């Protein structure tokens, strides 16, 4: 038989919560608040500033574009990496560099890992080689036209796995640097204009 309903005017008894559950919930909430305060205090104390990158030099040598639209060339760039932070240093664990022309990749290389101190500016030599890189569509035609003009417009992309060192803590991040519309002269007499790069850091 079903149990009889409670008398009229008397509400059903509410289940009692265990004191242990209340204690656990309070501890978890307290830990969340504590971690949030630590992150906020650390952020305010460190006052992180944005990393800055620019290409200071760029040149092309050994250029040859065959009748079959295959490119051979040596590219050299000097990347200026500026870490303006007083309390953050960086480990560059893996660095990949890509050179593209009209969205077509012509050369890929990597840079040796290095450590950058706080409030430091480091200059990196980027050497890339295009060896019989096949060009498709109108890309080869446009490249021949730019060769006549004396300048070549390229995109230089840098992807790196980095660790931000803040005191005893190390935070892993992915760094993306895009140096777009880099005008590189075929002849050194024309000179090279500095190019400032866009920077993105994510998890």
UniProtKB/TrEMBL annotation:
It is a single-pass membrane protein. InterPro entries: LEA_2 (IPR004864), NDR1-like (IPR044839). Residues 79-176 form the Late embryogenesis abundant protein LEA-2 subgroup domain. Keywords: Membrane, Transmembrane, Transmembrane helix. Its main location: membrane. The chain crosses the membrane at residues 20-46. Pfam families: LEA_2. Signal peptide: none annotated. It is found in: Membrane. This is Late embryogenesis abundant protein LEA-2 subgroup domain-containing protein.
């Amino acid at each position: 038989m079903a149990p009889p309903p409670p008398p009229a005017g008397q509400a059903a008894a509410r289940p009692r919560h265990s004191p242990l559950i209340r204690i656990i919930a309070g501890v978890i909430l307290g830990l969340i608040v504590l971690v949030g305060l630590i992150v906020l205090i650390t952020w305010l104390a460190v006052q992180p500033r944005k990393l800055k990158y620019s290409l200071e030099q760029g040149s092309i040598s050994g250029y040859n574009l065959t009748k079959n639209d295959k490119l051979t060339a040596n590219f050299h760039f000097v990347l200026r990496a500026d870490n303006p932070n007083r309390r953050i240093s960086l480990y560059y664990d893996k660095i990949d560099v890509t050179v593209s022309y009209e969205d077509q990749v012509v050369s890929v290389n990597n840079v040796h890992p290095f450590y950058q101190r706080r409030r430091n500016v480091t200059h990196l030599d980027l050497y890339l080689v295009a060896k019989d890189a096949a060009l498709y569509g109108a890309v080869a035609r446009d490249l021949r036209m730019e060769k006549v003009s004396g300048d070549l417009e390229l995109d230089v992309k840098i992807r790196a796995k980095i660790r931000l060192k803040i005191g005893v803590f190390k935070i892993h991040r992915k760094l993306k640097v895009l140096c777009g519309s880099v005008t590189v002269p075929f002849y050194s007499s024309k000179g090279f204009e500095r190019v400032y790069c866009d920077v993105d850091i994510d998890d």
